[in-house]
């Protein structure tokens, strides 16, 4: 078994290592990695070998419409790793099959960027439990029919990590684990083309360290030291960490901030080709030892760059299995704010198709802010100014535009570029928080259902952020916690409100309405093979700028999603309904017939959604 896998993946290993470290060193490095993988294979528990086999027999497991994700901080969801299992029935009720527990490997004390500053990848955060608790939980998660997803922070470590400590102690081998410059000439040369990720609280990309007597690369916060992937010893360390987590039962690794892993002078140091070569190598290592493990690329990049993380050119199908569809996320919010689908039609239809074996992760929002990634060219084609529209979205979702019911917060206003990002829970952004009348509540809840329908009906794994299933608003006390006061992303990372959760079956309450709407959507999704993730979604012709039509041509039949993104009644022309072959279809979500008007057109109520299918092409 192992031998067959090594034979299968050896060429991918070599092909990935060669551009990174040269043709001469590549075979030796590959042999060393095979040694690591073989040892991990031998140590892998039998039940995980069975999981490997099951998933090799179903290589499209991530694309199954049954896949529904949920992301939460362990402490904010359940308090402790040992108590997460108590809440698995709640997640099952929602249809969850993919559980992402936010960073829980041991972080530095004090501010740690929500766990993204790791001091020890082989230990769990003290107050959340132990590695043994994690292993036990992984088994419970598997038994409940779910996969366990964890973050792997591979662009940086905490400055208190052992590698950094040794570098500071003067060990030259560890100094080369980082990008260290003796004076400002290197940093200044790079800074000319580098953007800033956190201009507000962490300006610049380099931090002086007295012990190192040098400037160290810190893309994010100054306590997060970027590691040097140009050093093959770093790659070996991470390969070993991945194999360790895999053997504890982790199914999917979220490759955090993957775009930043390779630096090149004169560029923005994001998405360099070497990033994909590294991913290919790490993937080949896991395919040898633990093929049930998948990679999720966290690359929040321009729409045109997104596809590279699922593999383009020679990397097609060889890098990450999953990637965040941040372009869809942005367009959903853009459609709701502008009540117009033309930009979305342009931007989403402009994306080249992904490799059929790769899968989108779709989401309405996550633990991070929303960056308004609208391309100037796309905006221009539909008569908008790129900057003006991005600025409109940031102001709309901060509730600054007259008529906006949103209650988001501006995150990282960059005064040089006037770029503004947005924080907020789905409920606060959509207007549930500010709703003063039953009509307001109805409107906002319908808009949220519509937004969720787009995310669940796109194809790929929809991932819900904890609390959004109950319509939880922003946490008003987000700034009260030490270390959080400058980072308003904490506003949208509330503790799950279990009292609120008790209302989830009562549709007269906001939590009940949001939760039952979601359950209905999840059930419909699960029944529809048309939503298999291998199939591309296209946006259909725009007959009314307020109506988005999505089309999926699956061998079992066509899927047509119809979305009125406005708070008004809108018309879907009868001739189009007939052309698409869905005139007699019933809505797959509710079982209701089409809302035909007496005039031969379909009339869509405010924020209506229809999922329609045909039998056969
Ligand atoms: C990713 C995380 C974000 C974090 C950053 C640095 O983008 O999602 O929360 O701040 O990486 O690790």
Protein model, in words:
It is built from 22 helices and 23 strands. Helix 2 packs parallel to helix 11. The protein is of the alpha/beta class. 36% of the residues lie in helices and 17% in strands. Among the domains are: 249 residues, Glycosidases (TIM Barrel, Alpha-Beta Barrel), CATH 3.20.20; 67 residues, Oligo-1,6-glucosidase, domain 2 (Alpha-Beta Complex); 79 residues, Immunoglobulin-like, CATH 2.60.40.1180. An eight-stranded parallel β-barrel has the order 1-2-5-11-12-13-14-17. 53% of the residues are buried. The model has no long low-confidence stretch (mean pLDDT 97). It is globular and about 80 Å long. Helix 12 links the parallel strand 11 and strand 12.
What would the keywords be for this entry?
23 strands; 617 residues; alpha/beta; 22 helices; binds alpha-D-glucopyranose; four-stranded antiparallel β-sheet; 17% strand; Oligo-1,6-glucosidase, domain 2
